[in-house]
Design a protein that fits this description.
Zinc_finger_PHD-type_CS, two-stranded antiparallel ribbon, zinc-finger, metal-binding, globular, Herpes Virus-1, 6 strands, ligase activity, alpha+beta, 2 domains
Length: 133
């Protein structure tokens, strides 16, 4: 099986969408815009079938990531995410992933409003991995 991201053989992760034949390596997932969910049933999606955030919000002009303080752009995308509870906390996918790895599943929360339940659920669905610690 060949990875649709890097083109190398040995791809073992398949897109969950019925009829999609894309396969990829786990390390290639982020580069290819894929989402791998680290909660049961452990689904993975290619860039075309990945889940999108349901929040109907767009960042205002000059909105910055709450973690790195760099601009997030002017629209939702794979690389930018928003808190589903407050809808004002914008961050880069890589920044919130780093925070999740440091905080762990029991301490992970929105950096702005401190919501845990809606935020945690949304981040798990969107492919943010959190260790149990």
């Amino acid at each position: 099986q060949y990875c649709f991201v890097c083109g190398e053989s040995g791809a073992t992760i398949s897109c969950w969408m019925t009829g999609c034949r894309r396969k990829f390596h786990l390390p290639c997932a982020m580069e290819g815009g894929c989402v791998t969910q680290f909660l049961s049933p452990y689904r993975a999606f290619c860039w075309e079938h990945r889940p999108e955030q349901a929040v109907q919000a767009a960042p205002e002009e000059n909105t910055t990531c709450l973690i790195c303080l760099e601009p997030v752009g002017d629209q939702k995308s794979y690389g930018t995410m928003v808190c589903p509870a407050c809808k004002h906390a914008w961050f880069h996918r890589g920044c919130i992933q780093a925070q999740a790895l440091n905080a762990g599943i029991y301490r992970f929360q929105c950096p702005l409003c401190r919501d845990r339940s809606a935020f945690l659920s949304e981040m798990l669905i969107m492919g943010i991995r959190m260790p149990f610690r």
